[in-house]
Amino acid sequence: MMNHGVWRGRFQAVVGGKSRLVDSYHRAPLKIAKPFYGDSGEIILYMMDTSPGIFNGDTQEIDCTLEQGVHLLLTNQSSCKLQPSVKQAESRQTVRFRIGANAVLEYFPEPVVPFCGSDFQSRTQIEMEQGGQLFFSEILTPGRAGKGEVFEYKSYRSETSIYYNQQPIVFDCIHFQPKLDPACTKGLHGYTHMGTLYAVSPKIADLDIQRVRDLLASGNDLSLYAGVSALPVGGLTIRVLGYTACTVQQLLTECWGMLREQAAGLGKFRFRK
């Protein structure tokens, strides 16, 4: 039996600027925990998957709207495990966010772990209005490295597109087929883990980008390799290569904390999991 997990949500900023989840629909195995608030007033939401993971042939759909002035911090409970199965069909994930004027979305899912034989395709589309801000990170691992499963999955394809005022500012496509073409991972230069942070905000200036470059250059961890690129509107993209999900995630979190303070005027945040 193939699963089709769904979560759709809509958030509004009510009197006093407090963000609230006003509409929510889910279909198993996806569901959400009860929202709560952070010290800075942001609404915090944890998504959960009651299945052991996403199996070949499964579909997962996430659709979320942030209306004007909303501040949402969204994450999931644990790593996304891409499971193989007897089904030959690929598994699919579709994610869509709409960020209203002066709204803030901070989306930090846990790392993706593609098991041996898994076949996965993900499409993420984010549409932003004037004054909206986005902080979004994703991390890809090579598989269950502790069991010796390194690049043993069949296919992993991820497409991310971001629009600001209906203008495309990011299109990032990653496609690895290590079982079919072992040379496809040469772009990782020997590294096994890859992380990306997208930060889009009209408040991010050239000086902030230079500060991120200085932060990346100041690290003493030679097991990481990182770079940053400016976006056509205020914002940047950071990509980190490493050998463990923990070290990649730690560096991206440090960059997020710096940008969060400079662009949104907020202190560093630490998830409790």
Write the layout of secondary structure elements.
Elements: E1 4-13, E2 19-27, E3 30-32, E4 36-37, E5 43-49, E6 54-55, E7 59-66, E8 71-76, E9 80-83, E10 91-99, E11 104-108, E12 112-114, E13 119-128, E14 133-140, E15 155-164, E16 167-176, E17 193-200, H1 206-218, E18 225-230, E19 235-242, H2 245-264
Parallel strand pairs: 1-7, 5-8, 6-9, 7-10, 8-11, 9-12, 10-13, 11-14, 13-15
Antiparallel strand pairs: 1-2, 3-5, 4-5, 14-17, 15-16, 17-19, 18-19
Structural write-up:
This protein is mostly beta strands and 273 residues long. It has one domain (4-264). Helix content is 12%, strand content 47%. It has helices spanning 206-218, 245-264; strands at residues 4-13, 19-27, 30-32, 36-37, 43-49, 54-55, 59-66, 71-76, 80-83, 91-99, 104-108, 112-114, 119-128, 133-140, 155-164, 167-176, 193-200, 225-230, 235-242. A hairpin with a 4-residue loop joins strand 18 and strand 19 (235-242). The radius of gyration is 18 Å and the shape is globular. UreD, UreF and UreG form a complex that acts as a GTP-hydrolysis-dependent molecular chaperone, activating the urease apoprotein by helping to assemble the nickel containing metallocenter of UreC. The UreE protein probably delivers the nickel. Belongs to the UreD family.
Concise structural overview:
UreD, UreF and UreG form a complex that acts as a GTP-hydrolysis-dependent molecular chaperone, activating the urease apoprotein by helping to assemble the nickel containing metallocenter of UreC. The UreE protein probably delivers the nickel. By secondary structure, the protein is mostly beta strands.
